[in-house]
Amino acid sequence: MRNKDLKDVITFVMSTANAIGKSLDDGSISFMDALNFIDPAIKFGEAFIGIDDAYRQFADLSDDDKQDIYDYIDFNYDIDSEHLQPAVENCLKAAVCIGDLVMDFFDKQKG
Questions:
Q1: Domain membership of residue 80 as a residue range
Q2: Are 36 and 42 spatial neighbours (Cβ–Cβ below 8 Å)?
Q3: Going residue by residue through the chain (111 aa), what tens digit of pLDDT does each one get?
Q4: Structural domains in the chain (count)
Q5: pTM check: above 0.90
C-alpha cells in the first residue's frame, strides 16, 4: 500500500465523519442529509482496496512517509496539531473495522 492508498483510506473515513457531523448539526438526521454522504460514497471505492490492512501498513511506514500523511491531513482537515496523530490512528482503526464489516457481510451473503 502506497501513501496515496493510505490517504484515500483516511480521506474516506474523515469525509464520513464530516458527513455524520454535518447531518447531526440540527440534532437529527433526515432524508435531506443524504447529500452529505455523497462524497464518502464516492471515496469508498478508492479507499476499499487494502482497507483491511491499512493500520499495519501505516505502522510499517518510514517516519518521512508518516509525516507525509500527517501533513496531508493537516492541510486538508481542521485538526489541532496535538490531535493529529491520534486522529490518523483512529481513522486507520475505523477503516480496518469498516473493511472487516463489509467483508463479513459479503461472505455471509455468498454462503
A1: 3-110
A2: no
A3: 578 888 988 999 999 999 999 999 998 889 999 999 999 999 888 888 768 788 888 989 999 999 999 999 999 888 898 999 999 999 889 988 888 888 888 777 765
A4: 1
A5: no
